Amino acid sequence: MASVSTHQNQEKGPHLPPPSKQSLLFCPKSKLHIHRSEISKIIRECQEESFWKRALPFSLVSMLVTQGLVHHGYLAANPRFGSLPKVARTACLPVRNAKQ
Question: Cα dist. 89→44, 68, 83, 96 in Å?
């Protein structure tokens, strides 16, 4: 009789909807439904972290390297604006790629 009561107290797994009604965000292995708001929050956090820890430092280093190349004569400076156009263009490349 003890075994009968333990079987009745056990919870059944969550009911899985049919495959045609499951969203792409449903994971049957973990038996959790991840809400779109949680996913969008995670994506925002990842993009922000990517900007501050990858894109911005890479952009600053690229700017310094470009300025050094112009200063040492490996790249020609613009007669009117100097090294500013090359440095600005170099600064925009890593940031633009990180936002995509």
Answer: 26, 15, 10, 11
